[in-house]
Recover the amino acids of this structure.
């Protein structure tokens, strides 16, 4: 019964979305405020219905209702409750339902937080949002219905793929979708602006927080996936330039560019058309990611051609929204007035440079991801893997990394490059020192790696020195500096953290890829191996029974300089239902890196293949991502992003001063 | 199948294409005793695709075929082949698909020169646009153009004005 309610709510949600699309748009055409206002209750009803639908499916998973096809195919009664819940979105149908639920959630947030939004803009945004929702709901109802029943329910389910039964991977898809779908708001705002024919600072101020929310979630989502790959896959890798990863990375690159260009529209009224275009492209890349992942085109163009129903449908959605928005852009763009002229060396110029590099980097990833599909369609199979991207993407990013600390130090309209460079002397000095130390500590193994590490340090120190310079540190007395630090807009701290995160990421990724050590050996109980100064003794293997798996757990005693440090327990799980093994790694996290152990197959009696890694400073990769996301969060709390608030802020501040 | 990515995994799960998932790629018995030669074998392996896997190099894959190729690479190297000779030996037998970094040719023009072309094109566009409006005019032309108010805005303004 509950399943049928969920199914019914899903169909009803599609109808409500159609109403939410058509009625307000008609109202806006007829200048009828009552019809326009329909968008708000419609958005709320839409969310409520999808929530009912989503939680009905979750109910079916939690109660292991195997008469539902989707539950049968992706769940099992012996699975822990947490993974029964995450199993809802760990499959195609359920994940699409999560997608539309998040879409509806964003819609309601625009409706309720957007009280100060001009009514016509709000109407158009909600109407475009509803149209996206309609497209995806039809896709779910006609090609991917999660509520399909089985006439003769089986006794138990097929279970969930064991590698998906993991905490980080369970919360990875919701974050990714919050990111992908969040960019739909920027898209809807762009389309609404094109319909209305006006883009101004208020528009940019409205778009920015939504883009920021989406960007934060996407950053966390990608980070979680990378972290999971690291600890779960058993060989210490963290990014593979896999097409599916690229599918999430491209919207991130475009979204990062969008965050920066929206800033120019907001502050200076320039780059309006470009920002509109970028909003459209960012969401289009999200849709393309959905197409690549959901259609099966990546595993083989031919596999896609055999069962094209879903792929063609998403391709249709992609073509309709991207094509439609771009046509609208071509038609209306000439009417939008460009403003805010600036010199090449200026804050705007730096942000243009940022956009230039990020978009071309995104284009490079796009070409590398799609070109093999194109040649395959013409009968020629080529591979484009990590070596290609390392050779093209990395050098492209280098000039941007060097430019990052300059950007915030340049003034709007016309900046002073020499002055900015002067303020970065300290940062460059620290970086140079680190380069020399790194070079001598690693005994000159690599020339380039210490330099790139230096660039990372220079970005971190540069971000800090910008804040210190603005606070007049070392130039004014302490109380003045403290007052300035305290009163600085949160957005400044946000951008500082964001840039620091990038710097840390650079340091971590370079250090671990250049100086990681690896040892692959056969070990019998009692054997000791030495890696990166650690003496690791193998103490044998035990069998452990989990809720739905059996695990062979190894015991490794870790010593350093004769002192006991820790015991690691890497293992191998065999999931009973799927008869599939997974790896559980043993990781010891020291300040200077990770000691990483994975156990392989049993060779002879009691002897096992063991992989040892020492990954120096690898945690900086994810820490960097987290700090970037934190920067976004801090920026989000800036008063200026809440329209109407700035005035109140001034009042409270003067009120406090008066007391 | 180690070098499988997160959502590749999700997709595979969706497609029910889930082959046995094991850990080890390079096995202890494959490793050459000469560390220099082994390092070269690694260098070659990371650029060769495991043909039956999704976007994995033979260095990371545990598939039978990958193992055979790893052994083959090491055999050729011990026989005195250069890295390039090993690679062309394998490409001759398995086709260009085996290369994770495709060769430069007519069919890969866009891969190798596309990003550069984009950079030149976009850089050229910005250069031209900056040249066509010299920095000298910055201060003169920066005043925002006024736009007429819409009827709603006019109504809202009138309402505010009448209040006082």
């Amino acid at each position: 019964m509950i399943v049928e309610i969920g199914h019914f709510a899903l169909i009803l949600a599609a109808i409500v979305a159609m109403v939410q699309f058509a009625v307000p748009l008609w109202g806006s055409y007829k200048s009828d405020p009552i019809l326009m206002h329909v968008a708000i209750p419609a958005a709320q009803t839409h969310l409520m219905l999808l929530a009912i639908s989503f939680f009905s499916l979750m109910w079916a998973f939690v109660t292991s209702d195997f008469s539902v096809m989707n539950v049968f195919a992706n769940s099992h009664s012996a699975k822990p409750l947490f993974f029964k819940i995450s199993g809802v979105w760990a499959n195609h149908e359920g994940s699409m339902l999560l997608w539309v639920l998040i879409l509806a959630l964003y819609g309601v947030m625009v409706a309720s937080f957007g009280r100060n939004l001009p009514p016509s803009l709000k109407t158009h945004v909600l109407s475009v949002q509803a149209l996206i929702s309609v497209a995806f709901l039809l896709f779910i109802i006609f090609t991917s219905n999660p509520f399909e029943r089985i006439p003769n329910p089986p006794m138990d389910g097929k279970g969930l793929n064991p590698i998906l039964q993991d905490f980080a991977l369970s919360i990875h898809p919701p974050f990714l979708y919050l990111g992908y779908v969040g960019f739909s708001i920027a898209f809807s705002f762009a389309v609404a602006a094109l319909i209305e024919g006006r883009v101004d600072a208020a528009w940019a101020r409205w778009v920015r927080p939504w883009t920021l929310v989406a960007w934060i979630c996407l950053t966390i989502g990608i980070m979680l996936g990378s972290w999971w790959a690291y600890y779960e896959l058993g060989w210490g890798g963290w990014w593979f330039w896999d097409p599916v990863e690229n599918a999430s990375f491209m919207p991130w690159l475009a979204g990062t560019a969008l965050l920066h260009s929206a800033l120019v529209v907001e502050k200076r009224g320039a780059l309006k058309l470009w920002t509109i275009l970028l909003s459209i492209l960012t969401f289009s890349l999200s849709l393309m990611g959905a197409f690549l992942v959901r259609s099966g085109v990546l595993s083989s163009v031919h596999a896609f051609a055999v069962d094209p129903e879903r792929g063609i449908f998403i391709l249709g959605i992609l073509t309709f929204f991207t094509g439609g928005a771009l046509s609208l852009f071509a038609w209306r763009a000439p009417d939008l007035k460009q403003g805010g002229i600036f010199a090449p060396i200026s804050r705007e110029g730096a942000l243009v440079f940022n956009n230039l590099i990020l978009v071309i980097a995104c284009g490079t990833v796009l070409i590398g991801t799609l070109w093999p599909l194109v040649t395959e369609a013409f009968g020629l199979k080529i591979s484009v893997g990590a070596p290609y991207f390392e050779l093209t993407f990395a050098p492209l990013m280098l000039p941007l990394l060097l430019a990052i600390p300059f950007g915030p130090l340049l003034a709007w309209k016309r900046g002073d490059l020499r002055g900015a460079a002067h303020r970065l002397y300290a940062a460059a000095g620290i970086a140079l020192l680190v380069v020399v130390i790194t070079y001598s500590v690693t005994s000159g193994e690599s020339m380039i790696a210490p330099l790139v590490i230096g660039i990372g340090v220079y970005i971190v120190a540069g971000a800090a020195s910008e804040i210190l310079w603005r606070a007049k540190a070392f130039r004014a007395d302490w109380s003045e500096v403290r007052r300035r630090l305290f009163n600085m807009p949160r957005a400044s701290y946000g951008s500082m953290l964001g840039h620091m995160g990038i710097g840390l990421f650079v340091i971590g990724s370079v250090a671990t890829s250049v100086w990681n050590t690896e040892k692959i050996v056969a070990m019998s109980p009692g054997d000791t191996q030495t890696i990166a100064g650690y003496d690791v003794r193998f103490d044998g293997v035990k069998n452990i029974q989990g809720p739905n798996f059996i695990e062979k757990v190894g015991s490794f005693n870790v010593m350093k300089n004769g002192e006991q440090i820790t015991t690691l327990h890497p293992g191998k799980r065999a999931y009973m239902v799927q008869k599939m093994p997974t790896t559980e790694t043993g990781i010891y996290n020291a300040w200077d890196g990770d000691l990483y152990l994975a156990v392989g197959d049993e060779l002879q009696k009691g002897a096992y293949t063991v992989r040892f890694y020492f990954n120096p400073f690898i945690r900086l990769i994810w820490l960097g991502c987290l700090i970037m996301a934190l920067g976004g969060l801090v920026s989000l709390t800036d008063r200026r992003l809440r329209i109407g608030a700035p005035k109140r802020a001034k009042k409270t501040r003067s009120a406090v001063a008066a007391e | 199948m180690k070098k499988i990515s997160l959502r590749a995994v999700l997709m595979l799960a969706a497609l029910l294409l889930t082959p046995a998932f094991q850990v080890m790629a390079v096995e202890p018995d494959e490793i050459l005793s000469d560390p220099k030669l082994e390092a070269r074998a690694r260098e070659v392996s990371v650029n060769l695709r495991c043909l039956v896997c999704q976007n994995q190099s033979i260095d990371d894959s545990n598939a039978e075929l990958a193992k055979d190729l790893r052994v083959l690479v090491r055999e050729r190297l011990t026989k005195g082949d250069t890295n390039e000779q090993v690679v062309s030996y394998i490409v001759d037998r398995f086709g260009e698909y085996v290369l994770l970094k495709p060769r430069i040719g007519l069919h890969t023009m866009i891969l190798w020169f596309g990003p550069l072309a984009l950079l030149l094109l976009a850089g050229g566009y910005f250069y031209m646009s900056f040249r066509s409006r010299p920095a000298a005019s910055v201060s003169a032309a920066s005043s925002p153009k006024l736009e007429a108010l819409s009827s709603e805005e006019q109504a809202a303004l009138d309402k505010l004005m009448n209040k006082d």
